[in-house]
Amino acid sequence: MSSNHPLESLLRPAVELYTVWTCAGCALLCIWAPWSLALTPSVGISTAAGFAALGAWRFRQAWVVLRYRRNMRRLPRFALPARKVPLSRRSLWLGKGFKWDAQHTQRLHESRQPAAKVYVQPSVWYQRARRFEQSRERGAVGQHIAALLRWDSMLNPVRPLPPVGGRPALHAVEWREHDVWMPLGERVGHTLVEGTTRVGKTRLAEILITQDIRRGDITICFDPKGDADLMMRMYAEAQKAGRGDEFYIFHLGWPDVSCRYNAVGRFSRLSEVSTRVTGQLSGEGNSAAFRQFAWRFVNIVARARHALGERPSYGQILADVVNIDALLMQYVQETLESQMPGSNQQITDIEGKLNDRNMPRNMVGRHKRVVAIVQYLQQPEVIESLSDPVLDGLLSAVRYDKTYFDKIVASLLPLLEKLTSGKIAELLSPDYDDIEDERPIIDWQQIIRKKGVVYVGLDALSDFEVAQAVGNSMFADIVSVAGHIYKFGSEDGLPGEGGSQKLPINLHCDEFNELMGDEFIPLINKGGGAGIQVTAYTQTLSDIEARIGSAAKAGQVVGNFNNLVMLRVREERTARLLTDQLAKVNVSTRLMVSMASDNADVNSDQDFSSSAGDRIGTESVEMLTPNDVINLPKGQAFALLEGGQLWKIRMPLPLPDKTEDVPKDVADIAGRMRAKYATGDQWWTGVMPPPIHMDFSNPPSLHEPVERDAVVVEDAAGEVSHGEG
């Protein structure tokens, strides 16, 4: 047990207990029968105290071995209700764990040896109990016995392990775990969370988002699939933190209760509008030319609408692309007369003279008013005196043959129609003049100034393309806002000082590979200067590369994440993203040596000689291997923090919370999301989550201020699977 020993050897019988029992017997003998040891009663008491001290010291050593062996099979239960998640103004709590070093690699190496199998694998009685359960599934008596064997209590010596899988030894190699904190200053370097399906990414997101909301930071969560528990957790934490009036839900799947958002309504440069709209079109091969044509025409109509004093929207862009003639006529009607008095009358005169015989061939199918406008503007005296770039762009668009024009924008129309169909059109193309629509219209600049909390549900399981388009547009919008904040601060344009203030903006992007595009690279590359702190959750490195279409760009994205949290993954290449950054360490190995030799001297009485012993050597091994990452239990992770320091962490199992006073519309969304998506993210229980019981008597409105203590989270009586590995 001494640290001076070459081998620590904790996976062995607890031989220290022999000394403990011996000391206990001697101490009792010294107290009750000191005469048997030729001791006086007073000397017997002193001697018993010495034996007790020695026994306590040896028991402490034995307890380390016993606890270490127990953790190899089942870790202690670690569960917290949401209200007990630690909070700090300087650090971010990740869970409990320890800093991994060469000593833990040595212990992990020893746990893999054949001699340690008896201490690492479940006992024979445990395996028999599980086989009995399988063989008695149908019998009435057998079912009762099997239920007793499955009883999750410390009184059951063969209770089943929690359904987290993996190797418990990866965390059991250190029994002195403690809270793991990451300094908030490190978050601006962004954090990448890798993990396969159902291993705890969403649970980690809940823990981080809970702290961000309580700390008062701007918190924005992008959830492509739609997790009801995550949405409810954000709402509950916003209410408890007194930020209920700052909480907003944007959900494409439930437009009736969702906020409205114009993805192209706010911009720093007008060209951003066309970039956000056409960014979803394919840019590979021959499609690149059509994408550039589509970008140009969207830019033309956006400039025209902006010149007319109108805010661009998906619906307006679709209408203008489909019928650009109407836009040209409106623009000329409202702007040309002021520049050239009498122009509208001259155009009307030209229009009256047009017929099918004198109609230019390239203008067949166009409105006669459009043909008259083109002919009027082609007059030499008009060309010399008129300079209007917006009008020139519109003219260049209508001069194309109408059939040809429809072909080159054909790839754009399906996307715009998806974004402007049904009730989604009301969300993405809001009517700013409709005072009867009580759904708020969110804007990232306003959200940042209000220090808002936003849940964005993109309903990707129903329509992936629309979810992707909206998500990418939001990212592009946030990049634009970040650029403005970087230059002028979040309070720019408001009265008073503080224009240079930069607030922490926490972006939590679940399955971010489904949402990212080229605009995501500048977001993580330069967004830190504006206070943006991205926490991105994805499954594999290949997902990023497949989405962005370039290994170099995928490496550029990953290279901008300074912090890495790696849960269980199934792709070795993804696991090596962590293990290849770690140094090699030396581990001690033991070699049993046995030798025998004959004696060739006939005059000697010794016929042979033999020797046996253990030889200890060292070998250089990787601190962690990809197999270790692949074998992680659910809810556990390795983390590279603060410049490459390796930590082993595990997240707490959530204790059931009872949420009260939740608005009926929010609870309705959550209930339908559970029924529709059935994500099964409660991996810690092994069963689907039960419905939340709400009290709908006098529910507050979703976007009205509520009392600070409107939501109360309490421990419930429900049982949680014991242990985590």
UniProtKB/TrEMBL annotation:
Signal peptide: none annotated. It holds the Pfam family TraG-D_C. It comes from the Bacteria. CDD domains: TrwB_TraG_TraD_VirD4 (cd01127). Residues 504-634 form the TraD/TraG TraM recognition site domain. PANTHER family: TYPE IV SECRETION SYSTEM PROTEIN CAGE, UNCHARACTERIZED PROTEIN YJGR-RELATED. This is Type IV conjugative transfer system coupling protein TraD. It comes from Halomonas dongshanensis.
